[in-house]
């Protein structure tokens, strides 16, 4: 942008406008000084108001307590202490009614005699608790509670009087058996003429919390008392809230709340059964707690506290020392804003005139400053557009100021440069294909530098060698037909110089050009070579960019600096993309390492983890090619293909947790070894015992012929029985109920053990044997048994709650393993017990748990779902989440079919022969009818000939037979 230099006014002339701001500054300083002085006066006034309110509140509390003490002391000298009957005590009713009437804080006065008699007069004001307790008749003003002992037995009754002290009703209550001598306040009888003030407690008659003033009568035959409800104290205290949000608390010496702004506190029951008032910290916000911690003193010791919300509070804590009582504390706090609200309003009114004058001067100053600063504001708007990456419009600023015009020109040039740089940086950052990234770098840098051609070299992983990866010539980007086998010596020399920042731009002859860049067409004249090292953030060389430039189009110094900046950005993009590629290669190798380890772990899995991914991707690719039917909309982008690939390779990663002796279990008694050898040895012992018994019988004069015949029969029986047990151990035949019965019959045989079985064994096995007491040797044991030591307890870690976070819906056996001999030999089918079969099936649970623990990036978040769904069934009876078809993704359903087909046709399983093509498809056809696998995917699998393609790659020729797929094709 260019502006004429005529009629420009130097910027210093406009400095005169600053004087207006200076004048306004003086006005503001003067106004602030007035504001500050006024604020000090207002705060002093508010503090005085706060102190007066606090003092009045203390006087109220003292009056309440003095009222209770005074009433009690007077009553201790009243003639009521000598009354022995109810009628004599009723003569003092006018006195007590008058005392209660003129002591509003006191709700009841009473006397308890050493005979157990009790007389109480209370005020009735419609309190709900009293109403519920006594249900007084209409017009009741006074309620009298009386306990006398006319015949040595407690006689309780209630009397109800109206305001004129006329009796309304009299009730006898046999249940009212109150004994005053059992109450804590009766302890005042032990302290002659000394006032006793109780801790807060629940009144027996009303159930309401309060305190009692008690004192021994002058005749020393009774104790009188006055009750004050905490609610009354709270009512009187709240009269002194000077603002709506004033906070008050009356505390005892243990900081327990007697009354507060929140209302009457509820007594709480502690662990020892005592009822106490709540502590301040558990009852209210920390505002009052702060002032409680301030130094105790007189009312003038108010302080200020800033809460976490930033609000200022004015508060203080005061001691209240009353005769015959533990010291009390009054804590009071008021928000500063409420305390000074009225004063601030008055101050603001007085400053309104000053503010109006300042506002008028400010408007004049703003008008003048706006005229002077408009060009600067325009430039500021342009800078904000740059900050917001808005580069679409050219900079236009109208100004007569020379300095601002020059600034606008420089800003326009900077805007253009940044725009170009940002576009190029975004393009490089967005490119995910390494080859396209290199081609884009060459194309962009070639265009900026106006180069004829160029070559980009990339360093090897060892950092010692460098090879050409991409080149272009005459602005036509091309891909190198393979990597160059070597780089000419001259090129390496140029690269070394570039790294040392020497001769970055140099002239080369046609001969040198041909030697350095054999990939490019030969040159006919001298050219300039611009060599730029591509260095990452760590200063490591990741590549070199060599651009060939015509001498007539050599870039300027500014343009050369721009090219170097772009090259630095390109180096970061190259390094980042290469690092991502290397990480993907590492991840892929790690995944295949795990899958290979699982396949190598047991001969029963073979190459399963490697073949299932192949078949799964074959199904996904076939589905993606469909233009009609159920898979017309099925499509996977590059990231989803990566997701499917990883999920397929890791679909059985949980098998690393499955013990080999469970997976490879060939017989029913096999664990780490086959325990049939122990059973055989017991039979050998029984045969030896039979032979010994025979010879002992002969030695003792028995019939040798008969004994020998019995021995032969016993041997044959034992041999036949062992043969039966050994056959059961093989697990080849179905264990019918009659076989199980015979097994139990044989197990009932016994043999004699003379050696201890708890020595020379592992600590874990010792703990299992310790579940039963050790038998005294020699001991007779069953030939086969299910012992407590055979149970391996399932730990809490291995249990699954119904609401487990993974949503597994499986029946978990009670025990981890049950190695009972009868239990295992009685397995109906195969060799696996319920616990062992669960352990094998558990691999898919472990797969999901392991995969969900991995921090997969967002585009791979479905890996656990795809990998963990290949044992689910379309009808919701599958494993482990019982998902139905609609709850599973298409890739997960594809993997289920791939997993089953691979397992049926695998030829590397030592325990079975691989099924033929027709057998496998027939079995899967039954699974379609049972709604175990997806019929649409299975139809696609067959109609696209994937079964034949897989068979040719992974099955033996003799397995590939003729098969009719028409019954399974949905549109057939």
UniProtKB/TrEMBL annotation:
Q: Which CDD domains match?
A: HDc
**Where are the membrane-spanning stretches?**
12-33, 350-369
Q: Which UniProt keywords apply?
A: Membrane, Transmembrane, Transmembrane helix
Key word Transmembrane present in the record?
Answer: yes
Outline the extent of the HD-GYP domain.
751-957
Task: Show where the HAMP domain sits.
Answer: 370-423
Which PANTHER family does this chain map to?
Answer: CYCLIC DI-GMP PHOSPHODIESTERASE PA4108 (PTHR43155:SF2), CYCLIC DI-GMP PHOSPHODIESTERASE PA4108-RELATED (PTHR43155)
What is the protein name stated in its UniProt record?
A: GAF domain-containing protein
What organism is listed for this UniProt entry? Answer: Deefgea tanakiae
